Amino acid sequence: MTETTTSSALPEKLAGATPEVIARPIRGLSDKAIAWFFIGPTILLLLAINIFPLIWTIWLSFTNYRANRPNAEVKMVGLDWYHRILGDGDVWLAMQTTAHFVVWTIIIETVLGFGLAWLIDKKFRGHGLWTTVILIPMMLSPAVVGNFWTFLYQPQSGLFNYVVGFLTGIDPSSFQMLGSVRLSPWAIVIVDAWMWTPYVMLICLAGLRSIPDYIYEAAEVDRASPWRQFWSITLPMALPFIMLAVLFRGIENFKMFDMVNLLTGGGPGSTTEVVSITLKRQAFESWRTGYSSALAIILFVTVFGLANIYVKALNRVKQR
Amino acid sequence: MSDQTAAPRASLLSRFLRLRRGPWENLATILIGLGVVMLMQPFSATAYAYSFITILAGTAMFAIVSHFPE
């Protein structure tokens, strides 16, 4: 009883301790006004760092503005940059390179991630330790990963070439993962798969653990084989989670920049030039700000569209 | 026989005309997916040229139809 009285008196004591200069203007405000008082700064910050740059980029995409010539006259060019980008063979090629990267990373990460999740779900001895070990690559910064995989891929001293040479008998110094036109697109796929397979595994594991045991018990009563149980229970029930992982990795890899930039910088030539590298080159090497703004808007609309599908898939998973 | 084939068509059309979220969201999702495929495919430059407008139409449609009743 004493505790209740003390706890109810505390807010009044605190209210009494508020300086009169602050308390007086707030005292007469409605709940709605106080709510706006608290969320106002956040909304202002959001407008300043998110919405304003977006609107400015949209405006720049209709102009001939160049960031290295800020005093030059700015002219409106209408939809000219959009027409050029959508007829530009180099950007189309960068989109295809991005597609190669996105499709193969998704396939590898989904197959390996689901396989690992399925094994971890069996709860063998030490599965907790192995889960932590598997998750380590995901916790590293892409900059760190890019740097140390550059060392691993070194033809003379890199561990990757040595292991491939040891397993296949090929001379380790006879091939270059990052310097070869044929191998470099696969080099970035391998690094991304190494880093993000644990993430897909985590989502798949959540899906597998959401399947109730009684369904498997009923299947065993009906003498369903393990193979049949996998195709008729495990896979269909984990599918919404797998779709979620696929969409998330698809969106992330579509706008992948840091890791590819550190590993290959888009080279050799333009064999690993994903579209975000093209954007950087146009914006900060060719200084075509209007053109790069239009490309940025195209990428933004694409990612926004995919994000809509992602949210829809997420809601479906939540409804389960 | 002809009545049996006509019935599903009418029901699909009426589902769209009732302005419910489900079928319209599915249509917008298909448009976005188609646009992304058109953007990244290596076969047709014409498909690449029309990819952005397809994605934009799908995204705008998605934003509008998400306000429709369930």
From TrEMBL, chain A:
One of its GO terms (cellular component) is plasma membrane. GO terms for biological process: transmembrane transport. It is found in: Cell membrane. Its main location: membrane. It is a multi-pass membrane protein. Gene3D superfamilies: MalF N-terminal region-like (1.20.58.370), MetI-like (1.10.3720.10). It holds the Pfam family BPD_transp_1. Coiled coil: none annotated. The chain crosses the membrane at residues 34-59, 101-120, 132-152, 186-208, 229-251, 291-311. Keywords: Membrane, Sugar transport, Transmembrane, Transmembrane helix, Transport. It comes from the Bacteria. The keyword DNA-binding does not apply. Residues 95-310 form the ABC transmembrane type-1 domain. Belongs to the binding-protein-dependent transport system permease family. This is Multiple sugar transport system permease protein. It comes from Kaistia hirudinis. The lineage of its organism: Bacteria, Pseudomonadati, Pseudomonadota, Alphaproteobacteria, Hyphomicrobiales.
UniProtKB/TrEMBL annotation, chain B:
The chain crosses the membrane at residues 24-41, 47-68. This is Uncharacterized membrane protein YjjP (DUF1212 family). The keyword Transmembrane helix applies. Keywords: Membrane, Transmembrane, Transmembrane helix.
